[in-house]
């Protein structure tokens, strides 16, 4: 059974999850489009994603500005639904 990819709070990350990461004094937030756990996943899905992925594991998502980005899973955290309502 493959090891699941987890965020900085040790929660499993799956396609469709809302995640965020701190980036250059702000935050990047978006819905997970792909979870690439190894080189095989990168070779299989990478070209279709339109983003350069190096040194897996990586989580690919589109940020709030529409840019597709990839980040290390350990830098991500899940977005609380209540936090979305407050903003």
TrEMBL record:
It comes from the Eukaryota. Residues 1-12, 19-28 have a biased composition (Basic and acidic residues). Residues 1-28, 65-87 are annotated as: Disordered. Residues 16-76 form the Hypervirulence associated protein TUDOR domain. Transmembrane segments: none annotated. Gene3D superfamilies: 2.30.30.1060. This is Hypervirulence associated protein TUDOR domain-containing protein. The lineage of its organism: Eukaryota, Fungi, Dikarya, Basidiomycota, Agaricomycotina.
């Amino acid at each position: 059974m493959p090891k699941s990819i987890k965020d900085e709070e040790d929660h499993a990350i799956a396609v469709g999850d809302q995640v965020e990461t701190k980036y250059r004094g702000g935050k990047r937030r978006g819905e997970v489009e792909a979870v690439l756990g190894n080189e095989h996943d990168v070779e299989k899905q990478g070209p279709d994603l339109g983003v350069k992925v190096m040194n897996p594991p990586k989580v690919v998502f589109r940020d709030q500005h529409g840019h597709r980005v990839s980040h290390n899973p350990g830098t991500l955290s899940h977005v609380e639904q209540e936090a979305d309502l407050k903003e």
